[in-house]
Amino acid sequence: MKIAIVSDTHDNLLNIRKAVEVINENDVDLVIHAGDYVSPFTAKEFKKLNCKMVGVFGNNDGDKVMLLKKFEGIAEIKDLIIEEIGGRRIFVTHGVNENVVKNAFCFGFDMVIFGHTHKLLIDENDGRLLINPGELCGYLTNKATFVILNLKNMRYEIISL
User: In angstroms, rounded to a whole number, what is the distance separating the alpha carbons of residues 101 and 33?
Assistant: First the structure.
């Protein structure tokens, strides 16, 4: 199973459109969004995905009710995701601190995914992954990135737009 991990799209419709094209070309099975969609109108671009999408709210997602409404049938958005996906226990949040990561790994999670910092980070430790896919918007770092990950072998590719 292949997943794409995106975060901090911040209304950048052009980059969302480009990412959706790459995701569809790579036969991804699931997109995980680690928050900060920002505006409900971004749903229009995500609707073009050929796979399921799940995500969490970010700190800049002001109108959560309208986001849920516009993403209905496109993505399930929650405050946190704690699920088994493709045989891997995954914890997804927007913001994170060191204690959250340590506790998540203590509880047997294979992967912790977060956003918020806009900084790409992939840390591998004992077969577990800590992933921040960076920012898809590219506003703060001038680098629009996301990650495609094969859950079977935990190999990943960083995609730069």
Answer: 18
